[in-house]
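Worked example

This section walks through a single chain of length 324. The input is the sequence exactly as stored; nothing has been trimmed or padded.
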Amino acid sequence: MQANTADPAEAQPRSRTEPRPERRARPSRVALSRWRSRKVKGLAYAAPTAVFVAVFFVLPLLLVGQMSLSDWPLLAGDRGFNAPENYTDVTGGTLFWPAVRFTLLYTVIVTVVLLSLALLLALLVQESRPGAGFFRTVYFLPGALGLASASLLFWGLYSPGTGPLSRILEELGLADGPVSFLGTPASALLSTVFLIVWKFAGFYMLILLVGLQRIPQEVFEAARMDGASRGQTFRSITLPLLRPSLALTLLLCVTGSLLAFDQFFILTKGGPDNSTVTVVQLIYREAFQRLDLGTAAALSVAVLGVLLLLNALQFRALRRADES
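Given that input, the structure is written out below as tokens.
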């Protein structure tokens, strides 16, 4: 006979009081069905947005990339691969580097003036005082007007023959004759900057005002109790805590300035003597005046790359500032 080698302890029945080994809980069928239904609903809600982005952003972006690597006249269609001829033609054009320099100059001037004025306006109307709501509305009101409409309005105001500004200066004795606000490169640039500041100062003021109102008032009260002056409070408390709103306004302002088109197309048409041609105007000329979609697409891809690089650098600088 074969000896029974089983452990006696294992042969004994398990005691009722002895705890059983824990089993991993399995989700019930009801929970799984609920999870699946929520997943299906989430996909259904996200599907229209995904289709919209794919049709109106991803596909055009891929098409522009293909155009930038092909000989693609506007009226003849795709004639085949010709990279990197389009990119060399862009950089070798007579208007390319002047347009780049002018766009960068315009971006710097608009960014400094616009954000400085918007911050000043936000500081003036942040406190609850009589008339603060009225001035907030007045400052923001130009932002409700479209940029093309505002450009047409200022084109009429700047007109030396029929515009009221030139007549007002003449009646005040500040000008001997009709004033050409768009006649020289410097005056055309400054006149356009004035239009943009008038149009967008209230919009950026609103963004900064929201950031100011999110700062706890206890911080300012503690600074006053410690004897800090207004300048010290502004430098040490307001600006650091307002950094996210400032970063957002800086991002929007730089991006919008680099993509400037409407205001110069309506006010100056790139003149006088092509001195106010921006990079986006150059894209328009390549595509619809020279009828070369390949070169226009190559320039568009280059502008997109520059914008992505600048935005990445700004986000990185903001993250470092927050971590420090």
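What to look for: The chain has 14 helices and no strands.
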